[in-house]
Amino acid sequence: MTPLLQGKVALVTGASRGIGRGIALGLGEAGATVYVTGRTLSGRSAHMPFLDGSLEDTARDVARLGGIGVPVPCDHTDDAQTHAVVERIHSDHGRLDILVNNVWGGYEGLHLWDERGQKWGAPFWEQPTSVWDDMFSAGVRAHYVTSQRAAPLLIKAQGLIVGISFFAARRHRATEGIPYFLAKNATDHMALAMANHLRPHGVTSVSLYPGLVRTEGILLAPEGAFDLSNSESPQFIGRAVSALAADRNRFAKTGQVLVAAELAEEYGFTDLDGKRPRSLRATWEP
């Protein structure tokens, strides 16, 4: 059986570890050529050495699953580096079928547990302004610039843009910071706005919500900090992206906010353990 995405070219930003790595593996599982970006090419991150994962690790596992993995070091807060990644894909292939905007600096303070992490649930006037910068510079802005640079290649392929967001965009809770709520809300609205611009060109643009994902950072949390009974593997999110990319009717979803667990119900895929996690929509909708 031919893999569903054989011959397709994908770019996943922020794929050294976590959800980005899982998305790359899901695309590799479907046979895609996957360019993966991040700051850690090999070994452990110099920035967060307690977290495993590098671009070379991700690319190797993409190949192990049947795809082609291409590691490209990139700090997406530097527009020139982002531009160079897209130029390389243009030189190598002349088109891009799938762009997954996953890179996200918003949880850095939680991992390092510095002032940003310690003030995560504090009133906005007590939070350091760097929390905003993490979420918008290494998040929303990075997503916008990557999409902007990649749009001509995506238009050639009538491709797919997926912005990784979260249910926190749906309503603000007192325990969540204002920058977090606004960043995720902006990601959702950016998917809609880009869909409007790209609609005449047949490019699909969506926002995608994972549930609670068993990333390296989550698994390092103290026992009992998270209820993992309805959690998702990072690769489950990759399977959601792959199923959407393989759907010939995906354009009907352009501009929408989608949920990985709900796509599993629609497309019939499961997580690595054969289970199908429940959507968290009911616990977050106003």
UniProtKB/TrEMBL annotation:
<protein>
    <submittedName>
        <fullName>SDR family NAD(P)-dependent oxidoreductase</fullName>
    </submittedName>
</protein>
<dbReference type="InterPro" id="IPR036291">
    <property type="entry name" value="NAD(P)-bd_dom_sf"/>
</dbReference>
<dbReference type="Pfam" id="PF00106">
    <property type="entry name" value="adh_short"/>
</dbReference>
<dbReference type="InterPro" id="IPR002347">
    <property type="entry name" value="SDR_fam"/>
</dbReference>
